């Protein structure tokens, strides 16, 4: 499926663009844009696609998407029926990536928002009941204008940054942070993993990069990432497999070995455990 780039028009150079729509169904295709986006579904159901993530959305769903992250929301089939009277009701808030200059993040009050922007590079879905509370703030932004709208957006971003009631959407490979690979021990390890995950990963080799004994490294890695080394590598491989499946150029067997798995049955089991569907079902769900 072709990915479209969307160019967001900010009339009269306004800082924040808000679209409040009530329509038969979502219409915009698989696309990306440089602006950050907050999407609040007031009423509607369907399937959301964010990079390599596919899952259901429902009324009250609240998501934030980072710059250039491919995505689209597709309404359920009932909305597309010729005789359907169903409507979706949603609000989209979009603002340019340079709305907040890098220098502003040097102030401690803005650190949490900087971290929010970093998380948004993989897409964020906020969980109820927090999403319901934040949704009311989205409504206020949509009903405001000018400077008031910017201030309300800043308050919303602060709330989104502070909550722990969220889930990241895209896999590890879509994390677009720029790292300094010369100083930080963990960053050196992550750089190695994200460039070598298609190969056989040996604990001793990775521990050597971190200058730690293997057992000490396992504790260190788990503490820093919340995952074991094998879990982290598996997530990288599944993320890449999802990307290959979406592209549709390789068979499932080819995707299996290209993404670093050496056993097809193990790949199928692992893929289904992670995505709740088989590789073939994943392809059909995306391209149907």
List keywords for this structure.
288 residues, alpha+beta, six-stranded antiparallel beta sheet, three-stranded antiparallel beta sheet, 10 helices, 11 strands, 41% helix, globular
The largest sheet has its strands arranged as 2-9-4-7-10-11
Overall residue-averaged pLDDT value: 86
Low-confidence stretches: 176-183
Supply Rg: 21 Å
Helix-strand string: EEEEEEEEEHEHHEHHHHHHH
The share of residues in extended strands comes to 15-25%
- Bin the helical content: 40-55%
Question: What does this protein structure show overall?
Answer:
The protein is an alpha+beta fold. 41% of the residues lie in helices and 18% in strands. Strands 2-9-4-7-10-11 form a 6-stranded antiparallel beta sheet, covered by helices on one side. Helix 5 crosses helix 6. The protein is globular and about 55 Å long.
Summary?
This protein has 288 residues and is of the alpha+beta class.
List the helices and strands and how they pair.
Elements: E1 4-5, E2 17-23, E3 31-32, E4 36-43, E5 46-50, E6 53-57, E7 62-65, E8 71-75, E9 88-95, H1 111-120, E10 124-126, H2 130-142, H3 146-162, E11 166-168, H4 185-196, H5 203-209, H6 214-225, H7 229-247, H8 252-258, H9 264-275, H10 279-287
Parallel strand pairs: 1-3
Antiparallel strand pairs: 2-9, 4-7, 4-9, 5-6, 5-8, 7-10, 10-11
Helix pairs in contact: 1-3, 2-3, 5-6
